[in-house]
Design a protein that fits this description.
This protein is of the alpha+beta class and about 140 residues long. It contains five helices and three strands; from the N terminus they run βββααααα. It has a three-stranded antiparallel beta sheet with strand order 1-2-3, with helices on one face.
Length: about 140
Amino acid sequence: MYVRKMRKKWQCLVRLKGVSISQSFWSKTDARLWGQKTEVDIVNGVYLKNLKLVEMRLKDLLQLYLGKAMHKSKRPQILKYDVEMLRRFPMARTSLAALSAVKLANFRDERLETKIFERKCDRHHASHSRWILAD
C-alpha cells in the first residue's frame, strides 16, 4: 500500500496478489484506512473490484465462448444448439463472481437426473407405442 499527495487529494495505491487498485480521498487517514481494509479483503479473497468479473454473467461468457469456438468446431450447429440451451437456464443469469463449484455441481446433478428420467420415459413411451402398433 502506498499513500501519496495528488494535487489537493490523497491517493492510495494498493498492489497485492496481482491486483492493482487506486482511490482518491480528501484526507490522508481515510486513504490509509481504505488501503488497509482493501489489503485485508484481497488477502482474504473477498475483494471484488474487478468489474468485468462482477458484471459478466454466465450467459455472456457462453456467448463469448460460442463466438470463439464456432469456427473451430467440427459440428458448429450442434455446438450452437448446446450453448443456446445452456443460456436458457436460470443459472445462466448468475454473475461469474457468484458462481461456485457447489452451484455448478448441483446444476450438473440436476441435469443428469433430468436426462435419466427423460431416457426412462422415452423407453416407456417406446414400449407403449410398440404395443399400440402391434394391435
